[in-house]
Write a structure and sequence with these properties.
By secondary structure, this protein is of the alpha/beta class. 33% of the residues lie in helices and 28% in strands. Strands 14-13-12-11-7-10-9-8-15 form a nine-stranded mixed β-sheet. It has a six-stranded parallel β-sheet with strand order 3-2-1-4-5-6, with helices on both faces. α5 runs antiparallel to α10, α6 packs across α7 and α7 crosses α10.
């Protein structure tokens, strides 16, 4: 492209697509060239919001618009595979919405096809680009919390009910990506429960427990039928604990200097008659400053860097596949009413 910006064709201008379009326009390294949606009303809106962009109903036409180097796919999950395969055939780099595909097998197929053509493939795991999650990863990585004990994340609201995917597939992706990004660890088994409730055609709530090869444990609670909106993640270490509340406008992240300290047996003998020889510590609470730039803008800049041969992002195709491998194990476990299912990463 003459001006060096990555030219982008976007598929899907429903709920999420307009946010991607707006940030592709805002990012100095990308240029929005074409928008494709099969719904005429969405196309009319796209033309109003982006009058200089080609707005079409046919994805192949969008991909062949002049200067298109990359495809961004924001259509329902079931269509990701077919639209992404067309883009790969047309030699376009890819940024695909979460979850990458409807099955791990489809996702692996896409990753292999993109790899074979030397194309960048990134999955929109948006939360990895929020200032609060990035700061939480730094804090955990520095060892400040000590040895991690558990992770507990709640994402519930009277949300947008999806017809093609369950609340597990739609919402838990966010918590699972945050969990892995912050801890750097992949679970070995999943135990999940959940149920379907009208009007949701698919399971509308899910409670997922994830096991690791030591005593660290994670839990994710998602649904779209809750009267109150909660977006809260607790990371507990043996030294300190961190709470991320995404609904807070400021102070999204708080670190608690709290826990139980072992006391020497001599002191313990003075203070206690019997066990436990520990002392409860309730110390300072501090709220680290976090970058408040819009996550999608930071992410799209990272995508442009990746397309140009720069740093491979954390949320590349391989990580998109692994997240789906966790979701699949959880879905099998849910059908077995919580029986733990080993997660196989291939
Ligand atoms: N990263 C996030 O935080 C986030 C948030 C919301 C949705 N999403 C993801 O974005 C994707 C889309 O979700 P949504 O809520 O915007 O869905 P949506 O149903 O609101 O929008 C999808 C749009 O795609 C269009 N479409 C469907 N099939 C098409 C096709 N074959 N060709 C062209 N256009 C087609 C539809 O007409 C619709 O306008 C999903 O993968 C979802 O998981 C991500």
């Amino acid at each position: 492209v003459s001006d060096g910006r990555v030219g982008i064709a976007l598929a899907g201008f429903g709920y999420w697509g307009p946010n991607l379009a707006r940030n592709v326009v805002a990012c100095q390294d990308t240029k929005l060239v074409a928008i494709c949606d099969r719904d005429p009303d969405r196309r009319a809106l796209a033309s109003r919001l982006h009058p200089s962009v080609a707005v079409v109903s046919d994805w192949s036409e969008a991909l062949t618009a002049p200067d298109v180097e990359a495809a961004v796919i924001a259509t329902p999950v079931a269509s990701h595979l077919a639209l992404a395969e067309l883009a790969i055939d047309a030699e376009k780099h890819l940024l695909i919405e979460k979850p990458l595909a409807a099955t791990a097998e489809d996702a692996r197929r896409l990753v292999a096809a993109a790899h074979a053509r030397n194309l960048a493939l990134m999955v929109d795991h948006t939360f990895l680009y929020t200032g609060a999650v990035r700061r939480l990863r730094e804090i955990v990585g520095s060892g400040e919390l000590g040895e991690l004990r558990f992770f507990d994340s709640t994402r519930v609201s009277l949300g947008l009910i999806q017809s093609d995917v369950s609340a597990l597939w739609d919402l838990a992706v966010h918590d699972l990506t945050i969990l892995e990004y912050v801890t750097g660890r992949w679970p070995t088994a999943a135990s999940a429960t959940g149920a379907q409730h009208d009007p949701s055609p698919q399971p509308s709530c899910a409670f997922v427990t994830l096991y690791y090869d030591d005593t660290f444990i994670a839990h994710v609670n998602v649904n779209w039928l809750s009267p109150v909106k909660i977006r809260r993640t607790l990371v507990c270490g043996n030294q300190k604990m961190a709470v991320l509340d995404d609904l807070e406008s400021s102070e999204k992240l708080k670190v608690y200097d709290a826990g139980y300290d072992a006391v020497s047996t001599a002191a313990a003998a003075d203070e206690h008659v019997g066990p436990p020889p520990v002392r409860r510590r309730v110390g300072d609470v501090w709220s680290p400053l976090v970058d408040d730039r819009e996550a999608l803008l930071v992410e799209i800049a990272a995508f442009a860097t990746y397309v140009r041969g720069g740093e491979v992002p954390h949320n590349d195709g391989r990580s998109g596949v692994a997240i789906i491998e966790i979701l699949e194990a959880a879905a099998v476990s849910m059908a077995l009413r919580g029986e733990p299912v080993e997660i196989t990463y291939r």
